[in-house]
Amino acid sequence: MAIIQSIQPVPLPNRLWSLFAALLCLFGLAGFAGVAHAGYAAIVIDPATGEVLNAVNADEQNYPASLTKMMTLYLTFQALQNGKLKVDQDLPVSSWAASRAPTKLGLRNGQTISVNDCILGMVTKSANDAASVIAESLGGSEGHFADMMTAQAALLGMSATHFANASGLPDPNNTSTARDMARLAIALYRDFPQYAHYFSTEEFVFRGQLIRGHNNLMDRYPGMDGLKTGFTDASGFNLASTAVRDGRRLFAVVLGGRSASARDNLMARLLDDGFDHQVTPDTLVAQAGMPSRAHRVLAALSPIGTAEADETAPAHRRASRSCTAHRGKSCPRVAKSHSKSGTRLVHRKSKKVMLASSADNKD
Predict the structure, then answer these.
(1) Which is it for the CA torsion 199, 54, 297, 34, positive or negative?
(2) Whole-model pTM?
(3) N or C, which end of the chain has less CB nearby within 10 Å?
Protein backbone atom coordinates (compact mmCIF):
# COMPACT_ATOMS: atom_id res chain seq x y z
CA MET A 1 0.00 0.00 0.00
CA ALA A 2 1.33 3.38 -0.98
CA ILE A 3 2.03 5.72 1.86
CA ILE A 4 -0.72 8.27 2.18
CA GLN A 5 0.57 11.72 1.39
CA SER A 6 -1.07 14.57 3.25
CA ILE A 7 -0.67 18.29 3.63
CA GLN A 8 0.80 19.01 7.02
CA PRO A 9 -1.11 21.60 9.11
CA VAL A 10 0.56 24.87 9.96
CA PRO A 11 2.41 24.37 13.28
CA LEU A 12 0.63 26.05 16.15
CA PRO A 13 1.23 26.01 19.90
CA ASN A 14 -0.55 23.07 21.51
CA ARG A 15 -3.00 25.21 23.48
CA LEU A 16 -4.00 27.04 20.28
CA TRP A 17 -4.93 23.73 18.66
CA SER A 18 -7.13 22.89 21.65
CA LEU A 19 -8.77 26.32 21.51
CA PHE A 20 -9.20 26.06 17.74
CA ALA A 21 -10.89 22.67 18.05
CA ALA A 22 -13.11 23.79 20.92
CA LEU A 23 -14.25 26.91 19.05
CA LEU A 24 -15.09 24.90 15.96
CA CYS A 25 -17.12 22.49 18.10
CA LEU A 26 -18.91 25.40 19.74
CA PHE A 27 -19.97 26.94 16.44
CA GLY A 28 -20.91 23.63 14.82
CA LEU A 29 -17.99 23.56 12.38
CA ALA A 30 -16.74 20.12 13.37
CA GLY A 31 -16.37 19.08 9.72
CA PHE A 32 -13.94 21.88 8.98
CA ALA A 33 -10.25 20.90 8.79
CA GLY A 34 -11.11 17.38 9.92
CA VAL A 35 -12.07 18.48 13.44
CA ALA A 36 -13.87 15.72 15.36
CA HIS A 37 -17.04 16.10 17.36
CA ALA A 38 -15.14 15.40 20.60
CA GLY A 39 -18.08 13.91 22.44
CA TYR A 40 -18.23 11.00 24.87
CA ALA A 41 -18.04 7.41 23.58
CA ALA A 42 -17.46 3.90 24.89
CA ILE A 43 -17.14 0.34 23.61
CA VAL A 44 -16.45 -3.12 25.09
CA ILE A 45 -15.36 -6.05 22.89
CA ASP A 46 -14.75 -9.75 23.50
CA PRO A 47 -11.86 -10.48 21.10
CA ALA A 48 -12.39 -14.26 21.29
CA THR A 49 -15.79 -13.98 19.64
CA GLY A 50 -15.60 -10.52 18.12
CA GLU A 51 -18.82 -9.66 19.95
CA VAL A 52 -19.42 -6.03 20.82
CA LEU A 53 -20.77 -6.23 24.36
CA ASN A 54 -21.50 -2.53 24.73
CA ALA A 55 -21.27 0.49 22.44
CA VAL A 56 -22.24 4.13 22.88
CA ASN A 57 -21.29 6.60 20.13
CA ALA A 58 -18.63 4.06 19.13
CA ASP A 59 -18.35 5.33 15.55
CA GLU A 60 -18.42 9.03 16.35
CA GLN A 61 -15.16 10.79 15.48
CA ASN A 62 -13.21 12.03 18.49
CA TYR A 63 -9.71 13.10 19.44
CA PRO A 64 -7.69 10.08 20.62
CA ALA A 65 -5.10 12.22 22.48
CA SER A 66 -2.35 9.92 23.78
CA LEU A 67 -4.19 6.78 22.71
CA THR A 68 -2.44 7.76 19.48
CA LYS A 69 0.74 6.33 20.98
CA MET A 70 -0.76 2.85 20.72
CA MET A 71 -0.18 3.08 16.96
CA THR A 72 3.32 4.47 17.49
CA LEU A 73 3.94 1.43 19.70
CA TYR A 74 2.36 -0.88 17.11
CA LEU A 75 4.83 0.30 14.46
CA THR A 76 7.67 0.10 17.01
CA PHE A 77 6.82 -3.52 17.84
CA GLN A 78 6.50 -4.25 14.13
CA ALA A 79 10.00 -2.84 13.55
CA LEU A 80 11.38 -4.94 16.42
CA GLN A 81 9.74 -8.05 15.04
CA ASN A 82 11.09 -7.34 11.54
CA GLY A 83 14.60 -6.60 12.80
CA LYS A 84 14.53 -2.93 11.79
CA LEU A 85 15.01 -1.97 15.44
CA LYS A 86 16.57 -3.67 18.45
CA VAL A 87 15.38 -3.22 22.01
CA ASP A 88 18.80 -2.07 23.23
CA GLN A 89 19.47 0.13 20.19
CA ASP A 90 20.26 3.78 20.92
CA LEU A 91 18.33 6.34 18.87
CA PRO A 92 19.31 10.00 18.34
CA VAL A 93 17.30 12.83 19.87
CA SER A 94 16.67 15.72 17.47
CA SER A 95 15.84 19.30 18.33
CA TRP A 96 12.30 18.59 17.12
CA ALA A 97 11.86 15.66 19.49
CA ALA A 98 13.39 17.59 22.39
CA SER A 99 11.00 20.50 21.78
CA ARG A 100 7.81 18.43 22.18
CA ALA A 101 5.41 19.67 24.83
CA PRO A 102 4.85 17.87 28.14
CA THR A 103 4.36 15.25 29.21
CA LYS A 104 7.93 14.20 28.33
CA LEU A 105 11.11 12.58 29.59
CA GLY A 106 13.06 15.84 29.20
CA LEU A 107 15.31 14.61 26.39
CA ARG A 108 17.82 17.08 24.94
CA ASN A 109 19.00 17.63 21.39
CA GLY A 110 22.08 15.52 20.64
CA GLN A 111 21.38 12.90 23.29
CA THR A 112 20.50 9.28 22.58
CA ILE A 113 17.86 7.04 24.15
CA SER A 114 17.32 3.30 23.83
CA VAL A 115 14.30 1.83 22.06
CA ASN A 116 13.41 0.10 25.32
CA ASP A 117 13.32 3.39 27.24
CA CYS A 118 11.28 5.02 24.46
CA ILE A 119 8.68 2.26 24.79
CA LEU A 120 8.61 2.50 28.58
CA GLY A 121 8.43 6.29 28.43
CA MET A 122 5.43 6.17 26.11
CA VAL A 123 3.60 3.47 28.08
CA THR A 124 4.10 5.00 31.53
CA LYS A 125 4.54 8.78 31.34
CA SER A 126 3.11 9.08 27.83
CA ALA A 127 6.32 10.84 26.84
CA ASN A 128 5.84 12.95 23.71
CA ASP A 129 9.55 13.43 23.14
CA ALA A 130 10.07 9.65 23.14
CA ALA A 131 7.26 9.24 20.60
CA SER A 132 8.94 11.74 18.28
CA VAL A 133 12.29 9.96 18.61
CA ILE A 134 10.67 6.72 17.42
CA ALA A 135 8.78 8.57 14.67
CA GLU A 136 11.89 10.18 13.22
CA SER A 137 13.91 6.98 13.50
CA LEU A 138 11.34 4.92 11.59
CA GLY A 139 9.82 7.54 9.30
CA GLY A 140 12.62 10.05 8.74
CA SER A 141 10.27 12.80 9.92
CA GLU A 142 7.27 12.82 12.22
CA GLY A 143 5.03 13.92 9.35
CA HIS A 144 6.04 10.93 7.23
CA PHE A 145 5.68 8.62 10.23
CA ALA A 146 2.13 9.94 10.74
CA ASP A 147 1.38 8.90 7.16
CA MET A 148 2.75 5.44 7.97
CA MET A 149 0.50 5.33 11.04
CA THR A 150 -2.58 6.22 9.00
CA ALA A 151 -1.69 3.62 6.37
CA GLN A 152 -1.29 0.94 9.04
CA ALA A 153 -4.61 1.99 10.58
CA ALA A 154 -6.28 1.34 7.22
CA LEU A 155 -4.69 -2.12 7.07
CA LEU A 156 -6.14 -2.89 10.50
CA GLY A 157 -9.62 -1.83 9.42
CA MET A 158 -9.52 1.48 11.31
CA SER A 159 -11.36 3.24 8.49
CA ALA A 160 -12.38 6.28 10.55
CA THR A 161 -8.88 7.11 11.81
CA HIS A 162 -6.35 9.67 10.64
CA PHE A 163 -3.11 10.37 12.49
CA ALA A 164 -1.33 13.72 12.31
CA ASN A 165 1.53 13.03 14.74
CA ALA A 166 3.11 10.25 16.78
CA SER A 167 2.08 11.48 20.22
CA GLY A 168 -1.52 12.69 20.17
CA LEU A 169 -0.59 16.27 20.97
CA PRO A 170 -3.44 18.59 19.93
CA ASP A 171 -4.06 18.64 16.17
CA PRO A 172 -7.51 18.87 14.53
CA ASN A 173 -6.45 16.27 11.96
CA ASN A 174 -5.63 13.64 14.60
CA THR A 175 -8.98 11.83 14.82
CA SER A 176 -10.37 8.37 15.53
CA THR A 177 -13.33 6.53 17.09
CA ALA A 178 -13.82 4.32 20.11
CA ARG A 179 -14.33 1.32 17.81
CA ASP A 180 -11.10 1.99 15.92
CA MET A 181 -9.12 2.45 19.12
CA ALA A 182 -10.49 -0.86 20.39
CA ARG A 183 -9.43 -2.52 17.13
CA LEU A 184 -5.93 -1.15 17.63
CA ALA A 185 -5.75 -2.31 21.24
CA ILE A 186 -6.80 -5.82 20.25
CA ALA A 187 -4.29 -5.84 17.37
CA LEU A 188 -1.43 -4.95 19.73
CA TYR A 189 -2.08 -8.01 21.90
CA ARG A 190 -2.91 -10.28 18.96
CA ASP A 191 0.01 -9.35 16.69
CA PHE A 192 2.72 -8.78 19.31
CA PRO A 193 2.03 -10.97 22.35
CA GLN A 194 5.76 -10.99 23.12
CA TYR A 195 5.62 -7.25 23.84
CA ALA A 196 2.26 -7.10 25.65
CA HIS A 197 4.05 -7.10 29.03
CA TYR A 198 5.13 -3.51 28.40
CA PHE A 199 1.56 -2.31 28.92
CA SER A 200 1.52 -3.58 32.51
CA THR A 201 4.52 -1.44 33.47
CA GLU A 202 3.57 0.97 36.22
CA GLU A 203 6.90 2.71 36.70
CA PHE A 204 10.55 2.50 35.70
CA VAL A 205 13.83 4.21 36.48
CA PHE A 206 15.17 6.41 33.70
CA ARG A 207 18.62 7.90 34.22
CA GLY A 208 18.26 7.79 37.98
CA GLN A 209 14.72 9.23 38.04
CA LEU A 210 11.64 7.21 38.93
CA ILE A 211 9.07 7.59 36.15
CA ARG A 212 5.53 6.78 37.30
CA GLY A 213 2.66 5.85 35.05
CA HIS A 214 -0.69 7.57 34.52
CA ASN A 215 -2.86 4.45 34.36
CA ASN A 216 -4.03 4.49 37.97
CA LEU A 217 -7.06 2.27 37.33
CA MET A 218 -4.68 -0.60 36.63
CA ASP A 219 -3.71 -0.46 40.32
CA ARG A 220 -7.27 -0.95 41.41
CA TYR A 221 -9.15 -3.10 38.94
CA PRO A 222 -8.87 -6.91 39.27
CA GLY A 223 -7.20 -8.51 36.26
CA MET A 224 -6.38 -5.29 34.38
CA ASP A 225 -2.94 -5.42 32.76
CA GLY A 226 -2.89 -2.53 30.23
CA LEU A 227 -3.22 -0.34 28.05
CA LYS A 228 -3.14 3.48 27.72
CA THR A 229 -4.49 6.78 29.02
CA GLY A 230 -4.92 10.06 27.15
CA PHE A 231 -5.98 13.65 27.71
CA THR A 232 -6.15 17.01 25.97
CA ASP A 233 -8.48 19.95 26.56
CA ALA A 234 -10.41 19.13 23.40
CA SER A 235 -10.57 15.35 23.85
CA GLY A 236 -11.37 15.03 27.52
CA PHE A 237 -10.09 12.04 29.47
CA ASN A 238 -9.58 8.90 27.36
CA LEU A 239 -8.68 5.34 28.30
CA ALA A 240 -8.11 2.06 26.50
CA SER A 241 -8.07 -0.95 28.82
CA THR A 242 -7.85 -4.72 28.78
CA ALA A 243 -8.58 -7.08 31.64
CA VAL A 244 -8.85 -10.82 32.26
CA ARG A 245 -11.37 -12.58 34.50
CA ASP A 246 -11.76 -16.35 34.75
CA GLY A 247 -9.59 -16.78 31.66
CA ARG A 248 -11.69 -14.41 29.57
CA ARG A 249 -10.10 -11.22 28.21
CA LEU A 250 -12.07 -8.10 27.28
CA PHE A 251 -10.98 -4.84 25.66
CA ALA A 252 -12.71 -1.51 26.29
CA VAL A 253 -12.29 2.13 25.31
CA VAL A 254 -13.72 5.27 26.90
CA LEU A 255 -13.38 8.63 25.12
CA GLY A 256 -14.35 12.11 26.31
CA GLY A 257 -14.49 11.58 30.06
CA ARG A 258 -15.19 14.71 32.09
CA SER A 259 -12.49 13.80 34.63
CA ALA A 260 -9.91 11.09 35.19
CA SER A 261 -11.91 9.59 38.04
CA ALA A 262 -15.21 9.65 36.11
CA ARG A 263 -13.49 7.98 33.16
CA ASP A 264 -11.87 5.32 35.36
CA ASN A 265 -15.10 4.58 37.21
CA LEU A 266 -17.00 4.24 33.94
CA MET A 267 -14.32 1.90 32.58
CA ALA A 268 -14.62 -0.27 35.70
CA ARG A 269 -18.40 -0.43 35.32
CA LEU A 270 -18.17 -1.25 31.61
CA LEU A 271 -15.76 -4.11 32.24
CA ASP A 272 -17.76 -5.42 35.21
CA ASP A 273 -20.92 -5.44 33.10
CA GLY A 274 -19.08 -7.02 30.19
CA PHE A 275 -17.78 -9.87 32.33
CA ASP A 276 -21.25 -10.27 33.87
CA HIS A 277 -22.93 -10.32 30.41
CA GLN A 278 -24.88 -7.17 31.19
CA VAL A 279 -25.32 -3.92 29.27
CA THR A 280 -24.18 -0.68 30.90
CA PRO A 281 -26.96 1.93 30.74
CA ASP A 282 -26.30 4.70 28.21
CA THR A 283 -27.13 7.25 30.89
CA LEU A 284 -24.11 6.18 32.95
CA VAL A 285 -21.84 6.67 29.95
CA ALA A 286 -23.34 10.12 29.37
CA GLN A 287 -22.91 11.11 33.02
CA ALA A 288 -19.18 10.37 32.82
CA GLY A 289 -18.82 12.38 29.61
CA MET A 290 -17.50 15.83 28.87
CA PRO A 291 -19.57 18.89 29.83
CA SER A 292 -21.23 21.16 27.27
CA ARG A 293 -19.35 22.51 24.26
CA ALA A 294 -19.37 26.00 25.73
CA HIS A 295 -17.82 24.64 28.93
CA ARG A 296 -15.06 23.00 26.88
CA VAL A 297 -14.31 26.30 25.15
CA LEU A 298 -13.88 27.95 28.54
CA ALA A 299 -11.59 25.10 29.58
CA ALA A 300 -9.46 25.66 26.50
CA LEU A 301 -9.27 29.39 27.30
CA SER A 302 -8.14 28.66 30.86
CA PRO A 303 -4.59 29.84 31.68
CA ILE A 304 -3.95 26.47 33.31
CA GLY A 305 -1.69 24.48 31.01
CA THR A 306 -3.74 21.31 30.51
CA ALA A 307 -3.33 20.91 26.76
CA GLU A 308 -1.05 17.93 27.09
CA ALA A 309 -1.23 14.57 25.40
CA ASP A 310 -1.85 12.95 28.75
CA GLU A 311 -2.97 13.85 32.21
CA THR A 312 -0.36 14.68 34.81
CA ALA A 313 0.50 11.77 37.09
CA PRO A 314 -0.35 12.30 40.76
CA ALA A 315 2.44 13.24 43.12
CA HIS A 316 1.53 10.29 45.31
CA ARG A 317 -0.95 7.46 45.37
CA ARG A 318 -3.43 7.47 48.20
CA ALA A 319 -3.06 4.62 50.65
CA SER A 320 -6.78 3.99 51.08
CA ARG A 321 -9.57 4.31 48.54
CA SER A 322 -13.30 3.63 48.60
CA CYS A 323 -14.97 1.15 46.27
CA THR A 324 -18.13 2.90 45.13
CA ALA A 325 -17.25 2.54 41.44
CA HIS A 326 -16.85 -1.20 41.89
CA ARG A 327 -20.38 -1.52 43.23
CA GLY A 328 -19.51 -2.84 46.67
CA LYS A 329 -17.33 -5.77 45.56
CA SER A 330 -14.38 -6.87 47.67
CA CYS A 331 -11.20 -4.85 47.18
CA PRO A 332 -8.06 -6.52 48.55
CA ARG A 333 -4.88 -4.52 48.15
CA VAL A 334 -2.54 -4.64 45.20
CA ALA A 335 0.92 -6.19 45.28
CA LYS A 336 3.78 -5.22 43.00
CA SER A 337 6.77 -7.09 41.61
CA HIS A 338 10.10 -6.09 40.18
CA SER A 339 11.78 -7.49 37.09
CA LYS A 340 15.40 -8.59 37.00
CA SER A 341 16.25 -6.52 33.94
CA GLY A 342 18.73 -3.64 33.92
CA THR A 343 15.94 -1.07 34.00
CA ARG A 344 13.85 -1.43 37.13
CA LEU A 345 10.24 -2.03 36.24
CA VAL A 346 7.12 -2.43 38.29
CA HIS A 347 4.27 -4.56 36.95
CA ARG A 348 0.99 -5.32 38.65
CA LYS A 349 0.23 -8.88 39.73
CA SER A 350 -3.08 -10.53 39.03
CA LYS A 351 -4.65 -9.84 42.42
CA LYS A 352 -7.87 -8.06 43.34
CA VAL A 353 -7.24 -4.43 44.10
CA MET A 354 -8.95 -1.29 45.31
CA LEU A 355 -11.01 1.00 43.10
CA ALA A 356 -11.28 4.73 43.74
CA SER A 357 -14.44 6.68 44.21
CA SER A 358 -15.26 9.50 41.82
CA ALA A 359 -13.87 12.02 44.29
CA ASP A 360 -10.43 10.46 44.43
CA ASN A 361 -7.32 10.23 42.35
CA LYS A 362 -7.27 13.17 39.97
CA ASP A 363 -4.70 12.54 37.25
Answers:
(1) positive
(2) 0.77
(3) N
Taking CA atoms, 191 is separated from 266, 288, 363, in Å, by 28, 32, 30
Nearest to 191 by CA among 217, 157, 146, 166: 157
Q: Is 350 among the residues known to form the active site?
A: no
Q: Are 92 and 298 in contact (CB under 8 A)?
A: no
**Structural domain spans, the chain:** 17-311+322-348
Catalytic annotation, pick one of 69, 104, 125, 228: 69
What does the DSSP 8-state code read for residue 322? -
Burial state string for 169-178 with b = 16 or more CB within 10 A and e = fewer than 16: bbbbbbbbbb
Task: Render pLDDT for 295-337 as a digit per residue (tens, 0 to 9).
Answer: 455 444 444 333 345 554 333 333 333 333 444 343 333 333 3
**Of these residues, 18, 94, 104, 126, which one is catalytic?**
126
**Is 84 among the residues known to form the active site?**
no
Comparing 191 with 321, the larger pLDDT belongs to 191
- Count the Cβ atoms, other than its own, within 10 Å of residue 358: 17
- Taking the C-alpha atoms of residue 274 and residue 284, their distance in angstroms, rounded to an integer, is 14
> Among 66, 94, 137, 241, which one carries the catalytic annotation?
66
- Tens of pLDDT along 234-264? 999 999 999 999 999 999 999 999 999 999 9
Assess whether 69 carries a catalytic annotation. Answer: yes
Which of 228, 188, 220 minimizes the C-alpha distance to 67? 228
